[in-house]
Specification:
4-stranded antiparallel beta sheet, Rossmann fold, 37% helix, CBS-domain, alpha/beta, 16 strands, single chain, 417 residues
């Protein structure tokens, strides 16, 4: 595949509906980066267009120029030649400070200032922009809520008092603080455990569903790229564009042997990462509200034949999933929402299966916008979906083979004796 500008025709399934796009279009035009003393460029003639409001994942091996390409967008690294534009404007026409206030930046671990509270960390860029205190305080609380942290509980904490996943959420909130159209993320979830990583990925999908920013993320994890990306940019060693397309197209039709080897497109498990929880019919279980009389919830659960109750807070967010034998108090108590593992409706079936395997309920709680409860995904519904996908693929393969055979027979009939 050439390195000329590429914009895939296929629009991502989840980018066409929902809230208005607040992101900006990014264009790379023949961008080259050469470091002094090195013969080969780190990035070589990179041209592509990142549509506004999409998540684009930069993937490739070490030395492929992923992070260099990302950092040239906000001029943490200056290009040797070529042009990068945000909404048609050359990034070099603005001062570095002005540019970086318009471009959010999130790195591994959140990179929080340890001597500042959570609120002060998030408020850094708004303060530089001259926002008044009331507006900053309102924005801090809004963003903490958006990333799933209770403002009253976390606003005045210091980074050392947070878990790794909580620090990363604050880092995302800080990147969003001044409402920039573009967010750059450099392997932001690489230093956390797998369950926390899955939750942070789900949180990002939830945030993006609401805000529709332009997000450019570097990752070394192909599963993460397929899960999060509307499009994937695969870079070869030397920063050359190998393929730029939707995850579906890259897995189905790798551009060359390098892409095929890198993404592992032959793996059925990789294909399953394209299936989302939103494609599965969810089941509904008995729910109860925090503060409700336990006797009432037990009566509903027993009538429905359910062995457990999903507990929701006053904003319809799941905070617990209790077996009936665990409900002993007079009223339904609030569980720890941070410890309850759920999956977002945009999560992959692989993620859902991972959560189900660690659950004693044989299923996983599914959430949507602002972590609101949608229902339960269970093993039966996932295996039924997988079986249907396999049957459809087999039918399509059989139909294609039959069409090829018919075409061959027709050609033989028309051939001159």
């Amino acid at each position: 595949m050439s390195t000329t500008e590429t914009t895939p025709d296929q629009s991502p399934e989840h980018a066409g509906t929902g809230p208005a796009i607040s992101g900006a279009r990014i264009e790379f035009d023949n961008v080259v980066k050469r470091y002094p003393g090195q013969d080969a460029p780190a990035v070589d003639s990179l041209s592509l267009t990142i549509p506004a409001g999409e998540i684009v994942m930069f993937i490739g091996p070490s030395g492929g120029g992923k992070t260099t390409s990302l950092k040239m967008i906000n001029r943490l690294i200056e290009p040797t030649s070529g042009t990068i534009r945000i909404d048609g404007e050359d990034v070099r026409t603005k001062s570095v400070d002005e540019l970086r206030r318009r471009v959010g930046y999130v790195i591994q671990g959140g990179s929080l200032f340890p001597h500042m509270t959570v609120a002060r960390n998030i408020a850094i860029v708004p303060k530089l922009l001259g926002w008044d205190r009331a507006r900053i305080n309102e924005r801090v609380d809004e963003l903490l809520d958006l990333v799933g942290l209770d403002p009253a509980q976390y606003r005045d904490r210091y980074p050392r008092e947070l878990s790794g996943g909580q620090q990363q959420r604050v880092g995302v909130a800080r990147g969003l603080a001044a409402d920039p159209p573009v967010i750059l993320m450099d392997e932001p979830f690489g230093a956390v455990d797998p369950i926390t990583r899955q939750r942070l990925q789900d949180e990002l999908l939830s945030i993006q569903r609401e805000l529709r920013k332009t997000i450019v993320m570097v990752t070394h994890d192909i599963d993460e790229a397929v899960k999060l990306g509307d499009r994937l940019l695969v870079l070869e060693p030397g920063g050359r564009l190998a393929q730029y397309d939707t995850p579906e197209n890259i897995l189905a039709a790798p551009a060359n042997e390098f892409v095929d080897d890198f993404v592992g497109s032959g793996s059925a498990l990789k294909q399953l990462t394209l299936s989302r929880v939103s494609e599965i019919e969810l089941t509904q279980r008995t729910t109860a509200r925090v503060g409700e009389r336990t006797a009432d919830a037990l009566a509903r659960a027993k009538a429905a034949g359910d062995a457990a109750v999903v507990v929701l807070d006053n904003r319809n967010r799941p905070v617990g999933w209790w077996f009936l034998r665990q409900l002993r108090s007079e009223t339904i108590g609030a569980g720890d929402r941070e410890k309850l593992v759920t999956v977002d409706e945009r999560a992959t079936l692989n993620d859902a299966l991972d959560v189900m395997l660690t659950s004693s309920h044989g299923g996983a709680i599914v959430t949507g916008e602002r972590d609101q409860y949608l229902g339960i995904v269970d093993f039966d519904s996932v295996t039924d979906h997988m079986r249907a996908v396999e049957q459809q693929a087999a039918a399509e393969t059989e139909a294609a083979a039959a069409a090829a055979a018919d075409a061959g027979a027709a050609a033989d009939t028309e051939a001159p004796a």
